[in-house]
Amino acid sequence: MGSGDPTPATDASLQKVITTRQFTFMAFSSSIGAGVLLATYSSLAVGGPASLLISFAVVGFAVWITMCALGELTAAFPVTGSFYEYSVRFISPAWGFSMGWNYVINFLLIVAFELVVMVLCVQYWVPDMRPEYLLPAFIAGLILVNAFGAKWYAELENFFAICKMVVLTSFVIVAIVILSKAVPSDGRSADELGIHLWQRGAFKNGPVGFLYVFMAAGMAYGGTEMLGLTAAECERPEKVMPRACKIVPIRIVWLYLLPILMVGFVLSVPLDPGVITGGISPFVAAMDQAGLHVVGTVFNGIIILSIFSMASASVFASSRALQAISARGMAPAFFAKVKWGHPIWALVLVYIFSLLAFIKAASNGDKIFEWLLALAAGSNYFTWISICVCHIRLRLAIRKKGLDEQEILKWKSPVGIAGSMIAIVVFIFGLAAQIVAGAQSPLPAPPHILSSVLGIIIVFGFWAGYTLVRRHDTYWIPLDQINLQPKEWTGRSGGSSDIESARVEMVDTSTH
Predict the structure, then answer these.
(1) What's residue 287's pLDDT?
(2) Which domain of life is it from (predicted)?
């Protein structure tokens, strides 16, 4: 083993105060935000209801596989920092460095993205409302929510989770009522609803429309893996992650696929997707078309709460991720400082980045929506691919060393490494689809092609930078050098040599 007194891989300064009950509610809907509540409208207009449903089903299935892989990893090796520490351990220090910064940057920008979307939702009621009047209040709300620590953050997330479950379930019920022609205010005939809407444009804009929708799917499921971070502050991380793996498929069908199926049955989208404003949810638009304006207003209010929840979750994720990579020597050490149970300087940086939302007040500020959507989708696909690769290499390392899986794995993914391989193929397709759709977007004012590849540039930029600076590190850790002893692999809080220490310990373990 490497020299020095080992410390627990989890950081004791981040208190384990999140209960199993809180974690369970968070597993149901904590990361549902603008990706499904708003971005699905333009995707429905561009790709059609069949493209939207199929893409969400395929990506959702792959995300469930990824959560199973993460659950297996977390149960066997519970660590603060979760999946990118697994990248350091099972792939290479350089790739772990890249994945850590990829995740931090992603959620730093997602905070601004969700703030912009909240402004757009308020403008559904008051079109002339200036963003600079609303954003300070929203940012103050985020500061307040996160000021009381992980326990109260989780408690509020439970409330927000219930709101999301209520609004999406209610929409499915109201949509069924609309389809049954039991809404007096809806003057549409039966030929203008249900399967007839699908027959008129199930797959709009052909293959390009289908590929475009994958960007929204990649964004919508983003944050599901955040449960791996949350588990580090949970009372029993080795128990809650396997539970989350069982909840996620229920969540995907109930809160993603059913509402998306029903909105395709009751919402007639305009032929020109360019007339769709970024601030109206397809669920609210469906209520308006049925003449249920009061219901639409209530839905819009709950959707704003739901998006605020995702912004709050992004503050939590980005600050904890930054604290974790800083404690491992991947970022300036002062970001690792924890005071009063908070990663205080990491939070400060997050709130500074939230000010990017004020770009919405500038000329052409609405374009930030498409840019951040594309960046977040690409970042998510890389995160999920890395989790699956770590899972595959864990299993292969166990076999390579001739060890018994039962002695190492506390819980096993039901789909094994074959499932992770399938998920990787789906995510690579999603990345490729994003680039193709960005180059040949059917939107009248498509985002710049750079937005589609920016996430890829960021990931490989950090990887190349680390590789050039630390050339003596292993680019790809051999299977027989992967340390499979969870109590002996440690990250010391705050030293610049933490990644190197981890690498040395991996090599030392392989010689035992």
Answers:
(1) 94
(2) Eukaryota
- Where are the alpha helices (H) located in 77-148, listed in sequence order? 83-90, 93-125, 131-147
Domain harbouring 446, CATH code: 1.20.1740.10
How far, in Å, CA of 506 to CA of 498, rounded? Answer: 12
User: What's the rounded Cα separation, in Å, for the pair 99 and 463?
Assistant: 8
| Domain count across the chain | 1
Rounded-to-integer distance, Cα 357 and Cα 360, Å: 6
Alpha-carbon distance of 49 to 54, in angstroms, equals 9
The CA R_g of the chain, rounded to the nearest whole Å, is: 23
CA distance 83 to 237: 14
- Structural domain contains residue 470: no
pLDDT per residue as tens digits for the range 422-469: 999 999 998 888 787 767 666 655 555 666 677 788 889 999 998 888
| Structural contact between residues 496 and 333, judged by C-beta atoms closer than 8 angstroms | yes
- Residue 361 and residue 347: Cα distance in Å, rounded? 24
498 lies in some domain = no
Q: In this structure, what token pair is assigned to residue 391?
A: 């899972």
Distance CA 76, CA 2 (A): 21
pTM of the model: 0.85
Reduce the DSSP state of residue 477 to 3 states and report it: coil
Concatenated DSSP letters of 252-268? HIIIIIHHHHHHHHH--
Alpha carbon distance 219, 34 (integer Å): 8
Domain span holding position 400: 20-452
Determine the residue type at 437.
A
State how far the Cα of 506 lies from the Cα of 359, in Å rounded to an integer. Answer: 45
d(CA 369, CA 128): 18
Residues in Cβ contact with 426 at an 8 Å cutoff, skipping those fewer than 6 apart: 58, 59, 61, 62
Give dist(CA 307, CA 225) in Å, integer.
18
Q: How far apart are CA 427 and CA 29, in angstroms?
A: 22
- Scanning 271-366, the segments in alpha helix (DSSP H) are 282-289, 293-327, 344-354
**Residue 263 falls inside a structural domain:** yes
Low-confidence ranges of the chain (pLDDT < 50): 1-12, 488-512
Flag whether 113 is in a domain: yes
